[in-house]
Design a protein that fits this description.
single chain, about 230 residues, alpha/beta, Ribulose 1,5 Bisphosphate Carboxylase/Oxygenase, Rossmann fold, 2 domains, four-stranded antiparallel beta sheet, three-stranded parallel beta sheet, 8 helices, globular
Length: about 230
């Protein structure tokens, strides 16, 4: 079992055993329990009562966080020449097609998001083994396959995130940095949680949101009360 350092041990002492915190209090506490010297990410984990093995219980979506995630998002736009100026003007870090497809095939993945137009998706099929495991494959459901590449790029740069439940029924995403004001952390987390609640599959039975936790990178988990979040 991994051993935690003194900073982590001190942070754990700030969390009252058996207590579930309001989202506002958790957002304050996550700043106090950050145990790293760098500006840690603030993460939210939601355990859902779904079985992702069934397609009709897969929970996936996007949300535009009101205050962004606190880091620069590197965007690659895979588009034909007719759309390249639009992508560049919208702020894409890399714009092109065949040249970048070759780079991706060779293993280059120094990017966070790929935006593509529907007409080029046929060329990306062979890159599934490279892009899929890294969560980089463009998908219409996440808004990363679209003809409106300019809007898609601007939304991603402004803080739009894509999330997908894992095989254990857990959603995990970053909602900001510990340097954010607690209120901004709370509002970002709330936007994410409320979006997840709206995506409840009709086939999901029993309790949908089973638990919510907030933590900083390498910091202890803070249980979040569902009161006021889940109706």
């Amino acid at each position: 079992m991994a051993k935690h350092g003194k900073k982590y041990a001190d942070a754990v002492k700030l969390i009252e055993p058996g207590t579930e915190y309001s989202l506002a209090d958790a957002s304050e506490l996550v700043k106090k329990t950050a145990a790293t010297k760098f500006d840690s990410s603030v993460d939210v984990d939601i355990r859902l009562g779904v079985d992702p093995r069934h397609a009709d219980q897969m929970v996936r979506g996007t949300v535009a966080l009101p205050h962004g995630i606190g880091k620069s998002v590197r965007v690659l736009a895979l588009v034909n020449p007719a759309k390249q100026d639009e992508a560049t003007e919208a702020g894409a870090d890399h714009v092109g097609l065949d040249d970048y497809l070759a780079k991706l095939e060779s293993g280059w993945t120094d990017i966070d998001v790929i935006i593509a137009t529907p007409d080029v998706m046929g060329k990306l099929g062979k890159l599934g083994r490279v892009l899929g495991p890294r969560g980089l494959m463009p998908n219409p459901k996440s808004g990363t396959v679209t003809m409106d590449v300019g809007t898609a790029i601007k939304e991603v740069k402004a803080g739009k995130i894509d999330f997908r439940v894992d095989k254990y029924g857990i959603l995990h995403t970053s909602v900001g940095k510990v340097s954010f004001d607690a209120e901004k952390i709370k509002e970002n987390a709330e936007a994410f949680i409320q979006t997840v609640i709206k995506l409840k599959p009709a086939s999901a039975k029993g309790t949908y949101v089973k638990s919510v936790y907030m933590s900083s990178t390498m910091g202890p988990s803070i249980p979040v009360s569902k009161v006021g979040l889940v109706q």
